[in-house]
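Q: Hi! First time doing this. I have a protein sequence and I read that you can turn it into a structure. Is that right? Here it is:
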Amino acid sequence: MENQRSEETLFVAQGGEGERAMNVIGDEEDRRKHRKLLSVSEMDQTDPEAFARSYQIEALEKAKKGNTIAFLETGSGKTLIAIMLIRAYAHHLRKPSPFIAVFLVPTVVLVTQQAESLEMHTDLKVRKLYGAMGVDYWDATTWKKELEKYEVFVMTAQILLDNLRHCFFMLDMIELLIFDECHHARGRSPYACIMTEFYHRQLRSNCTPLPRIFGMTASPINSKASSSRAGYAKQIKELESIMNSKVYTVANESVLAKFIPFSTPKVKLYKHVDIPYDLWLCLADHLKTLKFKALRPLQLNDNAEGSTKKKIAKLFLTFLFCLTELGVWFTLTAAKSLSSSETDIFFWGERRDLLGDSIVRNFSRDIFHAFSQYVPSDPEWCIGEDLGMDLASGFLTAKVDCLIQSLIEYRREKDLRCIIFVERVITAIVLQSLLSQVAQLSCWKTAYMAGNHSGLQSQTRKEHMRIVDAFREGTVNIIVATQILEEGLDVQSCNLVIRFDPSATVCSFIQSRGRARMRGSDYLLLVRSGDSSTLSRITNYLASGDIMREESIRQALHPCTPLETGMYYEDFFCVETTGATVTLSSSVALIYFYCSKLPSDGYFRPSPRFDIDNESGFCTLHLPKSCPIQSVCIQGQHNMLKQIVCLKACKKLHEIGALTDYLLPESYIEEEEDDTQESGTNSYEDQYFDYFPGELVGRCLSFSEKELYHCYSLRLKQDFYYDVPFRDITLLVKSDLGIEFVSTTFQMEVHRGSVTLGMEYIAPIYLSADQVLMARRFQVTILRLLMDHNLSKLKDALDDHLQEESLARISYLLLPSISSKIDWVCVSSALFCSNVGGSSFKAGGYGIRCCSCPKENVHLMQTRDSSLCSCMLRNSLVFTPHNGRVYCIIGILDDLNGNSIMKSKRGEVLTYNEYFQCRYGITLCYSRESLLSGRQLFTLHNCLRRLSGQKEKALSNADVELPPELCVVLMCPITISTLYSFSFVPSIMHRIESMLLAVSLKQMQMNHCTQNVVVPAIKVLEAITTKKCQEEFSLESLETLGDSFLKYAACQQLFRDNKYHHEGLLSSKKDRMISNTALYSLGCKRELPGYIRNECFDPKYWVIPGESSGCFVEDVKFFSTSKNIYNRGTRHIKKKTVADVVEALIGAYLSEGGELAALVFIDWLGMKVDFVKELQDGTPFLAKPEIYIHITHLESVLNYSFRDPSLLVEALTHGSYQVPDIPRCYQRLEFLGDSVLDYLITIHFYSRYPGLPPGLLTDLRSASVNNDCYAHAAVKAGFNKYILHASSVLHGQITTFVQNFEQSFGGSSFGWESGSAVPKVLGDVIESIAGAILIDSGFNKEAVWESIRPLLEPLVTPETMKYQPVRELELLCGSKGYVKKFIKTSNNGIAGITAEVEAHGVIYRETCTGENKKTAKKLAAKAVLETLKKCIPGI
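A: Yes, that's right. Below is the predicted 3D structure, encoded as structure tokens:
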């Protein structure tokens, strides 16, 4: 057996590859230079040419003089030459130069590697680009910014090719163009296309400067070795022609051998041993049987079934390969690996449609179980323990045995780094598994690497880099790799390369051989004994390097052969304005790309269809129905028909605007731009002004002038009993507040009930300076005491109000009144205590303390600082220093004095004397004096806040008994009614301030408008009041109304203006037009953020009129000719809030002034839409629509007669119905119908149920405007029988839905109870029919409503509405404070949603699956709601 395993033949030959780029390993002196070269700091200061090798300098000089291809071994420093060349061109590239350098690489992994080298060794701005960065979606503006910023671009070749075709890049802006691994410039590769389509075309025209070309390769030939020198010469000549460059190389390998270690090529010959035939035959039969079993009727849709069958057939061949070439154990291992591998793609729904991958995995699992019977089941058995027995048993083949024996020979190798190259991904997977289990190789860690497009077990680029890093660090010793490691990834310190499978090309041989970079490394090739063909090929490969160098040097003196005209001159279309081009070769791909961007659903994918008649030479291109061009027909050469017809289609699509001037689908660019539009919608922007109405602002005048005030009566009325009545208040302002305030009312809420404020204009009045100062003192005193309940800020406030300033400040008066006349006696109560504040008044001194009682009735009582008549104390405001409180005295308790027994909460029996002695250490001096009955001051509340049933804690009505000698009288006379009424003042004035802002905003719009649009200010106020304010109204209902109208207005405008645009593009434009970002921008231009009320009012921060905190130092903002707006500070507001207010204002104008008023307001914002009624141009597109659907019956169901019945056919035609007779599908009509139905249903609910609570209108609309509701309506009307489609999946879903119709629709649930996914097409046709009627009727919305509304009956009502389960769960968790989340799960490839709620420390969890994510989430929410209702009482 030993002599069967292997025998070795040694080829002694010099050659090989060393390090890539500058990672060079040579003699000691070279390593020293290498280290110096890699020093960033030194490189920045020193010319690298001083450290470069002679051949590198020579190559650089060649490249400076002309286009050059550097043909040098890997590790010879080609990248260093490129860096030196870029540095030589740096002065042409540095900004603001318009020129750039482009460094092209064939694979993504090389982008980062080469970019890092350039960043390390040049001072230029380097940009790395690859597809995963989304560059395919960048538009001209984005590319322009990139070009203005960066000087060197490192990218994959396809990116440059696409940019040249779309004219984002121009060839004349590229000063230097570098091709890494330029041997790829063959055929139709991106490298070749760049040169043929652009470089050679401009070279021939000689009209623009061309970039300098520099190519790099380790082998100019990328094909099988030629049998003659002439063959090598021809291929080198072809590469030089296409690159328009001359090859530079060294004379022989000895030049490089001074610097580069060469591996020793060795050929290991093994004698082939067949697997026992009977065993092979038996297992092959098993494979066939299981294949036929797996290919039984799969019950999948057509596309999935075809794909699944292809995968099973491919796997069958994979397993057969493993059995024949590797052995039984490898087939078993492959089956195990492929049956257990999970994909990151989860499938929604049951196995009926989308589980082809599960079927494929089951096939692999069946293979695994079948083959398990032929491998020892003993857990102690392990492959490789007895290689001779394993070989004889067929568990492995002689080739595998040879590999293992070869590795065993290197067991003594210190720090082994080995790469084993294989051809197939499955070979890499199973060999890695084998080498990890062979005991004799257990000292080494093995990994595998394969491309990420293998279709088996894909690996990401990050995984590749992780494995390579582990290989460098020594934690991985062996990598089994496909060709991915031949070119691209930089793998250092490798001392052994084994070719398990032979190289397919010369380039593959040279590059894999060059992976062995350590000095004394080996390059081992496993060859079957007697395989003369492979041995001959290896011999040619070994000789190829010298031959290619000799031929390159021989041709160096001859100029490049001109490229054959046919290779670069082909018919093309060029856009004059941009220069973007499409050629015959690229036209087919562009058409496919255009179709891929058309709207699609789960039932069809838009794609072109070619109808070719070879006999006549005609070709007809059929485009999807959503394309404005349905077909293109040409006649031409048989082998060019597809390209010719696609090029013609590209021209036509550009003519009608379906392709932009950059030859990209318009939706493509718009859509990708829109991806960033909404980013940050909910983020806070810069601070915005907080406006204050100028009507309530004034300046302090001199004390000698009389001032004119406008008087408004404020009457408070309560709907509950309280022992303290209200009294009237008069508001005095210096400006007439306008017609909105002549007579108005609004309601406030307190814990006891509602309070209604009636506001009426009385008359103007003049006040003297003394009256103004006394009035200011009164309101500052009473309001400051009500706000603070102590004297801490009162003194400063009273001093401040006397200051004469030029600054504008909040300036109005609030005074008590009787019968609409100011109660000056009460106002004068603020003058009672002259020692509080620095009052300059000498109004009577102590004389004001005298009462009006007859002398004989005067009953003096001793207070803390004086004696007063009891009548003055009876209605006074006092301060008690012993506890720092302020009380309102409401009476005198003649039957109580200091010696009376006090009622104690603790049951103690104490007199008042004893209580004050014990509690405060105070001894009452006048213990026989009657006590006063006092009540604490009222607490200020936000009376505008909606209490929602949660009543505030009521203040105690209990009175307190106070000894007069402990009281300091602050105000007298003043009643408790006055104090109670003034406790509402902050809330009243906050509403008036808000109303004045609303009036100002309305006036600002009216000044712009020529039409007489009357919108009440209270409606505008509702539109600028957010939910956060927690008041009786908010913008939610108006926002919903405005949103629906704006959506309809935009959709009908776009539909009429863009007849060639498909639904996807129309939707994209609509979304951009009315997005939150767009509305936010419009709102900011009109200064709307300053008007928005976005915070709950807090009386603690209300500014008392006249105080200095109400001064305005900001510049006045003028918005109209008559009124000012002042800025009282800045605040943060979310973008979405501004957008919501814009929609709500549109809703306010719509609700009060109709559509014209709303359009006027939209025009004022800066958005241009109109409602010009236009009928469709042209004749019906179908001559006999009745042959496709039952027109008469459908018109009777719709109660509408079509002028153009072909619109009804269009409304019922799905995109999958690719019949040329019907050129259009329903998507455009659906786009229009969706918006008009949304608008009609919203305005119906708004009009039908006026005064809906905020948010309920949104819920009603959501319950009615949804696909579930529309789908049920479509089935009830029988529309499902007339939908024209060609999808078996859709047919099956409609059938299932109709069969379960009664169970899925309960009437009042409006589709929410459906447990299965509703086919969207059913809902779509309701919308498309609505769109058809709207167009046919000349945009008559009433006709649409009269026709569609009966189909939707019974419409939901506030009483019958049920929330969608997800919404209901959201409301429940919000109200109860529960924490909820939805988690995506997977079970055997079936995706599901888990709804999780944490309530009272307990987690409730339910998981459901569905045919899509939306259905699964709905079912999960419904299930967890039911669990919560069962487990938690009261829900």
